[in-house]
Amino acid sequence: PLTVTDCHSRYVGRALLVAHKKDIIDYFMQDPRVKQHAFSKAGAEKCHACVEHHLETNPTHVTGAADLANAYNEGDRSPMWDLIRNVPGLAGMLPYVVAIYGVFAWIVLERATAGPLYIKNGVGYRQGCVLAALLFCLVLHVTLLEVAALNPQLHINAFVDDANFSGPVTTVPAALAEHAGTYAILTAGAMNLDKYNIFSPRTSLTVV
After folding, report:
1. How many whole angstroms separate alpha carbon 36 and alpha carbon 125?
2. Whole-prediction pTM value?
3. pLDDT tens digit sequence for 43-53
4. In sequence order, which ranges of the chain are alpha helices (DSSP H)?
């Protein structure tokens, strides 16, 4: 994950994002209850607006915010290969992704006192890779869809790794726990529990 892609690779990656932008947005926005806003214009603002609208129209509901720990560096990226092949419109990206991520090797970091640290580059996403957010979100989206399928009243709005789970107070805390487990099983990644929170403008959080 520490290897930086060169300027030529970044140019090709950027061209792929532009060429496949519609397919990317369509995939992440097609589910009526699970939205990944990272690739839409003003995505952060839209994500916040969707959460705000949900709480306004469902005054008894709450929203739980989840955050991943070192999301770009620690997650196993192996699930992304099937997703790139199977998500409509994205298969054309596969040769580039193979060129950037297809070779597994060990990265050796020398340390003065503790000896060398070995990191397998099959984990995490390359710094400077313009497709890193997309590849990460493809894997994350699978876990969000799975949790939503288990909770029919749940609505999820995400911006990259910041996901907001909105629904009844009896549903959201359990959904947060389910997502932590689902994400850990798929990627071996962890949650940043210090940044978890549950909020609502009207519902007393003493009932959570």
Report:
1. 19
2. 0.86
3. 999 999 999 99
4. 7-19, 21-29, 43-57, 71-74, 80-86, 94-101, 132-150, 172-187
